[in-house]
Backbone:
């Protein structure tokens, strides 16, 4: 799921990375006002700091008191900065599977990859239109509530948390797949519990990341977010280096089209474009929000070109032997391979604390107001650690990266990135849009439903079959 740079509306210093997600941005806003009264940013209520209301996005000016000093900040994200925000947030775990998806779907499935990119660019555009319609809408959930009331907010929130949960499982599976190659030749054994070397390495890595869930300092979260962006870009660069200097000949045969694999492949492609939940924050941070559509089109064009290039390079390099994560297919003795594997292993470590921010916010909202800061930290860290250990257990039990990723893309990402934005837009602007626009959005909803149902059935069936074979073995 996704990284992004600072939104100047909520950050005390320019270019400081704030968060991974919309919830992380809201968490950052809470943390900045150290002397602020309790506030409910999730529900869109302003915080009060020294008697001054802090508006997280409805207005174009925010005032925050930090250490007794009141600071006023205007959204000043330029066009280029906004494009970097969006591109950096979209590039993530999904890029690892694009060569595998192209090889399994055939080279003609690249048209599906490009088409989904165009659809997601359009839905980003209409999210911007929904935000322009009501300046009080600051988050993805706000748009859902504006369209369908409390039900819209609940459904949107449920799908967002579901996507985060599946993404964390996918990150942990990726960690488990790549660690044995990073520590090739390592042999670990404990008398109890009876775990393999790979499982023990994964447990150790997750335990190393566990303390990050206890972090409450904004600068620490900022560092992790920047590291996540850097790791994603490093992975792409190392695959290109392997193609150029690795001595692996390109030109492996790629089938034209495999229709039976398209449902599963569509889920993999869709996961790569998931990120619409943070677009309201990018919109709010822009000094000229009227250019949001141009930002979305430019960003998705860049990301789609990157994914398409990586898909063809990886599939052409490794052919039918390409793994579900392209890093697993790279030549073992190559320096670029070692860099790619380390980047892939470090990526989950940078994601856990940031992705858990939504759960932390919800948890702290429901804690007693009289509870002290230390007790809140203990509850937050304890619950987060327990949830991460549960995710670890699930990832070790179901270590099938491509099927979990495809299931996430089909079951959740299609809804968040295609179906919901179109439905929200039609409901909010009903009676004020042309018949052609209604037809376009209705067609995209139908197409999204078809991809969601077919992809979910295909990936869930493959996942269950793999689990059954694993138990039989």
Residues:
């Amino acid at each position: 799921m996704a990284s992004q740079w600072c939104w100047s509306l909520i950050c005390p210093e320019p270019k400081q990375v704030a968060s991974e997600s919309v919830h992380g941005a809201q968490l950052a806003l809470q943390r900045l006002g150290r002397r602020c009264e309790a506030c409910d940013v999730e529900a869109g209520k302003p915080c009060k700091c020294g008697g001054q209301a802090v508006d997280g996005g409805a207005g174009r000016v925010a005032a925050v008191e930090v250490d007794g000093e009141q600071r006023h900040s205007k959204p000043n994200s330029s066009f280029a900065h906004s494009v970097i925000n969006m591109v950096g947030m979209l590039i993530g775990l999904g890029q690892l599977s694009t060569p595998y998806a192209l090889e399994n779907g055939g080279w003609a499935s690249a048209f599906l990859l490009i088409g989904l990119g165009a659809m997601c660019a359009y839905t980003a555009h209409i999210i911007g239109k929904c935000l322009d319609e009501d300046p009080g809408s600051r988050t993805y959930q706000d748009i859902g509530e504006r369209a369908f009331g409390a039900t819209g907010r609940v459904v949107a929130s449920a799908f967002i948390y579901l996507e985060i949960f599946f993404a964390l499982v996918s990150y942990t599976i990726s960690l488990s797949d790549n660690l044995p190659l990073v520590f090739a030749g390592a042999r670990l054994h404990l008398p109890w519990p009876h775990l393999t070397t790979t499982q023990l390495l994964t447990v150790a890595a997750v335990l190393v990341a566990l303390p990050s869930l206890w972090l409450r300092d904004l600068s620490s979260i900022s560092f992790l977010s920047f590291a996540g962006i850097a790791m994603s870009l490093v992975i792409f660069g190392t695959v290109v280096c392997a193609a150029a200097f690795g001595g692996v000949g390109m030109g492996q045969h790629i089938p034209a089209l495999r229709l039976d694999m398209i449902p599963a492949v569509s889920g993999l492609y869709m996961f790569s474009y998931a990120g619409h939940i943070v677009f309201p924050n990018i919109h709010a941070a822009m000094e000229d929000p009227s250019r949001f559509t141009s930002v979305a089109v430019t960003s998705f064009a860049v990301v789609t070109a990157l994914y398409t290039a990586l898909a063809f390079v990886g599939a052409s390099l490794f052919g039918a032997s390409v793994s579900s994560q392209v890093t697993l297919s790279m030549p073992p003795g190559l320096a670029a391979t070692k860099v790619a594997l380390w980047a892939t292993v470090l990526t989950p470590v940078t994601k856990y604390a940031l992705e858990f921010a939504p759960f932390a916010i919800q948890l702290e909202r429901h804690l007693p107001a009289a509870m002290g800061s230390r007790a809140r930290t203990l509850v937050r860290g304890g619950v987060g650690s327990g949830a991460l250990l549960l995710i670890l257990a699930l990832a070790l039990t179901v270590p099938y990266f491509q099927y979990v990723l495809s299931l996430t893309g089909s079951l959740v990402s299609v809804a968040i990135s295609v179906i919901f934005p179109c439905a929200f837009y039609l409901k909010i602007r009903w009676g004020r849009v042309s018949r052609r626009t209604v037809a376009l959005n209705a067609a995209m909803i139908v197409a999204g439903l078809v991809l969601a149902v077919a992809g979910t059935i295909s990936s869930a069936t493959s996942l269950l079959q793999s689990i059954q074979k694993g138990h039989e073995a």
